Amino acid sequence: MKRYLYLMLGSLFLSTGLWGQKTDKPGADIFMNYCSACHGKKLEGGQAPSLVSDEWKYGSTQKAIAHTIKKGVPNTTMVAWENMLTEKEIKSLARYMHSLKKKHRQLNR
Ligand code: HEC
Fold first, then answer.
1. Does the reported pTM lie above 0.85?
2. Which of 94, 83, 103 lies closest to 27, judged by CA?
3. Are the beta carbons of 67 and 61 closer than 8 angstroms?
4. What distance in Å separates the CA atoms of residue 101 and residue 56, rounded to the nearest whole number?
5. H helix or E strand, kind and range, residue 100
6. pLDDT digit string (tens) for 65-77?
7. Nearest residue (CA) to ligand 1, atom 22
8. Quick one: which atom of ligand 1 is closest to the CA of 31?
9. Number of structural domains the chain divides into
């Protein structure tokens, strides 16, 4: 009986591991779930201003992005996410958004 339990746990571990490998960036998944409704799937904007065509108002370093995500932007629909996401998730989100921005810049040149 115990062996089946280990087998089940093992396959669970494996499947989540493989799933993670496919996207290779957990920040991407969080972004799709929580942020893309307003920011667009590729930061192109929607309800929120595009973050690829314009300069970022609040800074586009990973540190500045993480800060905006944590604290939000007062008087806009951009809420503070610090109570909803972990520190690690915010970091990987910041890394993800930063990489999208960089990729876009390279495409434009
Ligand atoms: C309900 C809509 C909404 C959702 C959901 C949302 N945002 Fe925003 N966000 C906004 C708006 C609107 C602004 C622009 C505020 C401004 O221009 O003053 C913004 C601004 C930002 C900025 C700053 C951009 C700049 O110009 O410097 C970052 C970074 C950001 N959002 C990240 C996120 C992340 C990460 C998530 C998901 C965890 C998220 N947002 C979810 C509406 C949203």
1. no
2. 94
3. no
4. 10
5. helix 87-108
6. 999 999 999 999 9
7. 68
8. 37
9. 1
3-state secondary structure of 86: coil
Q: Is 64 in the pocket of ligand 1 (CB under 6 A)?
A: no
Q: Answer yes or no: is the C-beta of 86 below 6 A from any ligand 1 atom.
A: no
> Is 6 domain-assigned?
no
> What mean pLDDT is reported for the chain?
82
Give yes or no for residue 76 CB within 6 A of ligand 1. Answer: yes
In terms of residue numbers, what domain contains 65?
25-108
- The pLDDT value recorded for residue 22 is 44
How much distance in Å is there from the Cα of 39 to the middle of ligand 1? 7
Whether 16 lines ligand 1, by a CB cut-off of 6 Å, is no
Q: 8-26: per-residue pLDDT in tens?
A: 665 555 555 544 444 445 8
Measured between alpha carbons, how far is 48 from 77 in angstroms, rounded to an integer?
A: 8
